[in-house]
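INFO batch 0412 | record 1 of 1 | parsing
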Amino acid sequence: MRRKPRIPPSPLPQHKGVDPVRVRLPVSDEWATVGEYLVARLSGAAPGMVAEMLDSGLVVGVDGQPIAAHTPYAPGLRLWFHRDLPAEVPVPFALEVVHRDAHLVVADKPHFLATTPRGSHVTETVLARLRRELGIPALGAAHRLDRLTAGLVLFTVRPEDRGAYQTLFSARRVRKEYEAIAPYDPSLTVPLTVRSRILKERGVLAAREIEGEPNAETLVELVERRGDLGRYRLTPHTGQTHQLRVHMSALGVPILGDPLYPEVTGPVPAGDFRRPLQLLARRLEFTDPVTGVEHRLCSGRTLRAWESYEDWAGL
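INFO prediction complete | emitting tokens
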């Protein structure tokens, strides 16, 4: 079996808890210089930005030395640089750590905070915040939560442990329990298990159910009722994108505050924190693959609509 080449360590430190971008030049005779390639590769950058980065010595090679724009193109050459960080609206909610040891950090994230850097959310993410606040540059995510969902997220302290914890989730050896606030429907018989096939297409905001072999399964239970609202316990047995939101909407009881289901009303505008999605990753239970410890972790957050529906609904 052919082994993958070892990736050398980054010659650049993190910036605001964010790793530098790593680029490996592909085999090609299309470009004569590194500068030509980067201009083509980073076509979404502002005009002149790539040239300015190269002229300022912000693009470096494996030895940490600046790479000039006129450097001859060489397949396999590795480059590092920091992306131009977007201006981000700070998410004004605390990020709590519910467990920390030599291998794990489990955070209780607020609504609206993305798990890892992606798109326009880079420094305002759980990963970047924890790296800065805890001083653990090697911290990595073992799984993710949607930006709009609050609750428990697991991170690994040591890169060599990450695969073992990621396998817990991919092999479905983690018991995950969520809480949701949604309309109460007396005609809905619960508990029930929802099974369907969910398709999430790249570039499309909402996922959808399609015909075919089910790839998503959720146990739905009603925990408590208050008037026209229900507090539901959702136990997913699979991990499809937006699975819980899709299944609750399909049952006719969409989760409160959902901007995508049953109808797409937008993405939520930056800085609008008034109506958080009423979905919380409440519990994580698993056997630690490194230490053998049995973990039973619980979020300390509450869902706003259940505590004060009148105030929440009036926003």
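INFO post-check: The two ends are 59 Å apart (CA to CA).
INFO record closed
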